[in-house]
Amino acid sequence: MQYIKTLRQYGIFVVFIIICLILSFISPQFLTVSNWTIIITQASINALLAFGVTFVIITGGIDLSLGSMVAVTGVTAAMLAHPDTFPVALPIFAGLLAGLLMGVFNGFIITKSKIAPFIVTLGTMTIGRGLALILSKGRPISNLSDSFNFIGGGEVLGIPFPIIVLVLIFAICSITLKKTLLGRYIYAVGGNEQAARASGINVNQVKMAVYSISGLLAGLAGVLLTSRITTGQPNAGAGFELDAIAAAVIGGTSTSGGTGTMMGTLVGVLLIGVINNGLDLLNVTSYYQQVVMGIIIIGAVVLDSWNQKSNV
Amino acid sequence: MPSNPQNILQVQNLSKSFLGVKALDNIQFNLQKGEVHALMGENGAGKSTFMKILMGLLKPDSGEIIFEGETLKSNNVHGNLRKGISMIHQEILVVPELTVAQNIFLGRETNYRSWLNDKVINQKAQEILNAIGVKINAQTKIKNLSIAEMQMIEIAKAISNNAKVIIMDEPTSALTDNEVTMLFKIIKDLKAKGVAIIYISHKMDEIYEITDRITVLRDGKYIATKNTNELDKNALIALMVGRELNDLRAAFRFLENNSIKGESILSVQNLNKKGKFKDINFEVHAGEVLGIAGLMGAGRTEIARAIFGLDMYDSGEIMLKGNRVEIKSPEDAIKNGIGYVSEDRKALGFIPALSIKENISLSSLGNFSKTWFVNSSNEYEATKQLVNDLKIKSTSINQKVMTLSGGNQQKVVIGKVLLTSPSLVILDEPTRGIDIGAKFEIYKLINQLTEKGIAVIMISSELPEILGISDRIMVLSKGKQTALLSKQEATQEKIMQYAVH
Questions:
Q1: Helices marked H in B193-232
Q2: Nearest to A66 by CA among A215, A207, A224
Q3: Which single residue of A4, A29, A255, B41 could bond B217 by disulfide (Cβ 3.0 to 4.6 Å)?
Q4: Are A232 and A77 in contact (CB under 8 A)?
Q5: Does residue A310 carry a pLDDT above 70?
Q6: Confidence (pLDDT) at B266
Q7: What is the pLDDT of residues B327-360, one digit of tens each?
Q8: What proportions of chain A, in percent to the nearest 5, are helix, strand and coil?
Q9: Integer distance in angstroms from the first to the last C-alpha of chain B?
Q10: Is residue A196 within 8 Å of A45, Cβ to Cβ?
Q11: Considering only alpha carbons, which residue of chain B is nearest residue A197?
């Protein structure tokens, strides 16, 4: 009985560990430092997006424009990252700013118009894709400076730079959600928006904040991706929003708002990464990988609702 | 227990636990044909769990339910409904976009034809509505009905189900006096037809008016079943709370001299909102309770919402301690020292998934910390203090508010308001749907607030409560202020006269 309860509470952690154990038995390469370095590095972009969208989903919203924001910010950064034009800080800054602005735009429309976030961000998703194509004139932008390419491909003390970014951003997001007023207000708005307003919380400000954060992190993801593939791709990031949302949901964030943790989202991200990696190691074709991923998403939500029932 | 042929429903030794906590412990209950049987008990006594089991929503751990002489084996909602056990819920469960008839026959649309046929169900629904004397067109969309009318629809639905047992959970909590009269007439008709009714209410007057027998539960245990006319009010309360409790009036305020003391806290001048209220003028002083009486829809809550910044008003002035203030949001109101405890606890009161601590501190977090970070030690101390002061029953202050009983949830909301150190507290139906013990504590709390010099506005539909607590009483009728009575002038009759003015 006690074991079952524990399994429910830490459901996705347990699933994660079981899958890792199984994979390490099946494939000797799985549990090696170099393999995990690959898993985490590859997962870092999804992680940044998933952290951002976790804030949004906890308020009861959704952000479908993440993938497009990755493309716009990546292209923006790439345009300024040619060798010997500007210092490397400029393309990074421009990428982040572009993401932030798009996030602010999402937040502004959602709070002012009272249109459902699903619709608004569906709109900005299309707008963003168009902007990325306009900015790049529809062509990939390559020939970027070495210092820019370091962000996605470099290492510090043997640790790939994206992993350092991932750890840092995870810590910041986690603390923001758990320890700050904003974090508390995010849960309150998602848990009961009317009651949050009646408690004196400026609900619109909170919503502005989460969409802005989501945009800013999408900007960071865009810069990272562009640097890693050493090209500004206007078609990059298509469908990324779904992976990010999936990670958050697998990690226990409820799409109806009010619950979720960054730790859960991180596990969700890693679980997706591990499964993709494991299926690669086992030479399973990517078609099957998608089927498996879908099953896991539904399984996670079933587990979550099971857990919620037992809590009442 | 010998089987009595008069008993339509008999419950023996019913027990149910949640995570090791006994919610129901050996419950006995019997229900006879054609009786109205009150189920009484404080919040948390186990009434809801018991009713959920009767409905088939929960399975009992042990015990027997015998319905019409047969033991209910597989306890499930659909089965019990078909056998004839229906429930009128406290929160009304209807589909707003469908018509009255479609709601009444929801899930059973094809009982009369094998395909959807609105004409047939409209006709059937109208027959039922006419039979119980409800003047509603069966083709009206539910969203266009008042709450009272929706309740009538739920009853019609139960009747259409050939219900032999109808459970009514706080059926009058949203009804006006006229509507209550109408409901009682329907209940009497149902009784005459042999339908048995389990009636749950916190309103004593109703229990004595409509019920035949009373069963009392306390802390999940069966206490007693008595004939209503053999059990007086004080004895009933004693059974419910398990201790002698003087009449509620003991908690009401006795003022040594009722001259208005203290400075003016709130002054409202010519407040208007089109279609809601008109030319409202009043003042509340430190240490004073202003009661607002009136029928449902008289504009009481609307005025409170406007003062608190939940809604905009069209014209007029709100002065706080002599200064004109612009209140555009609850945020502004709280900063200006106004606290509001809403009548709609679920919608506006608390965040169910957050803990007691997080709910109580929600309006004051900014005051605790100078930085962006929540000062958790301050938060813990302050909320712990309030949980003790308000006697909020919980396992820990980290317990989620959704798991608390109604009375304790209300105390959490009040705690949240008190933590903002308000100079004016607006209580909108503060004792609605909570048990008598918790009511008592809220009356005491109001007295404590006024002793501290806080001004209190209390909106209530219960006249004895308004008369017992208020120093002055404002009466509203259809959005207009019809009287401002002092404690000496006010009587139930006078208030009612002005309320229907």
A1: 204-210
A2: A215
A3: B41
A4: yes
A5: no
A6: 94
A7: 999 999 999 999 999 988 888 999 999 999 999 9
A8: 75, 0, 20
A9: 55
A10: no
A11: B330
Angstroms from A167 CA to nearest CA on chain B: 21
Residue B247's CB: how many other CB atoms inside 10 A? 10
How far does the CA of residue B199 sit from the closest CA of chain A (Å)?
Answer: 26
Strand partners, B36: B197
Instruction: Output the six-digit token pair for B188.
Output: 């009497």
Evaluate whether A61 touches A210 at the Cβ level (below 8 Å): yes
Q: Do A195 and B351 touch (CB under 8 A)?
A: yes
Antiparallel, parallel or unpaired: β B264-273 and B472-477: unpaired
Residue in chain A closest to B333 (alpha carbons) equals A200
Among A181, A188, A199, beta carbon nearest to B369 = A181
Q: Are β-strands B221-227 and B213-218 bridged in parallel, bridged antiparallel, or unpaired?
A: antiparallel
Give the residue from B38, B88, B41, B86 showing the smallest Cα distance to B212.
B38
Nearest residue of A to residue B18, measured between CA atoms: A312
Given A184, A195, A202, which is nearest B374 (Cβ)? Answer: A184
Model confidence pLDDT, tens digit, residues A157-207: 889 999 999 999 999 999 999 999 999 999 999 999 999 999 999 999 999
Q: Please give the Cα distance from B362 to A260 (Å, whole number).
A: 18
**Residue B386 · residue B442 · CB < 8 Å:** no
Residue B419, phi then psi, degrees to nearest 5: -65, -20
Q: Quick one: tokens of B448?
A: 């404590």
A257: nearest CA partner in chain B: B353
- Cα three-residue angle B353-B355-B361, rounded to 5 degrees: 120
Lowest mean pLDDT among A111-115, B112-116, B154-158, B285-289: B112-116
pLDDT of residue B355: 94
Strand partners, B319: B267, B324
Q: Which chain A residues in 155-194 lie under 8 Å from chain B, judged by CB atoms? A: 179-185, 187-188, 191-192, 194
- Cβ(A260)–Cβ(A50) under 8 Å? no
Q: Which of A170, B190, B494 is nearest to B484 (CA)?
A: B494
What are the tens digits of pLDDT across the range B139-170?
888 888 877 788 788 888 888 888 899 999 88
Q: Sort A46 into a burial class: Cβ within 10 Å, 0-12 / 13-18 / 19+.
A: buried
The backbone torsions φ and ψ at residue B59, rounded to the nearest 5 degrees and listed phi first, read -100, 135
Comparing C-alpha atoms, which of B436, B435, B416, B437 is closest to residue B427?
B416
**pLDDT for B191 beyond 80:** yes
Given the structure tokens 């959970």, which residue do they identify? B169
Would the pLDDT of B117 be above 50?
Answer: yes
- Cα angle vertex B47, ends B45, B53, to 5°? 130
Closest CA to A226 of A73, A48, A89: A73
The β-bridge partners of B99 are: B141
Query: Measured between alpha carbons, how far is A136 from A128 in angstroms, rounded to an integer?
Result: 12
pLDDT tens-digit map of B42-89: 766 888 889 888 888 888 889 999 988 888 877 777 788 778 888 887
Q: Is A193 exposed, middle or buried (0-12, 13-18, 19+ CB in 10 A)?
A: buried
- Which chain B residues touch A202 with a CB distance below 8 Å? 329, 331
Which residues make Cβ contacts (< 8 Å) with residue B426, sequence separation at least 6?
Answer: B304, B307, B308, B338, B339, B340, B341, B456, B457, B458, B459
Show the tokens assigned to B244: 């002698």
Cβ separation of A197 and B310 shorter than 8 Å? yes
Q: How confident is the model at residue B317 (pLDDT cuts 50, 70, 90)?
A: very high
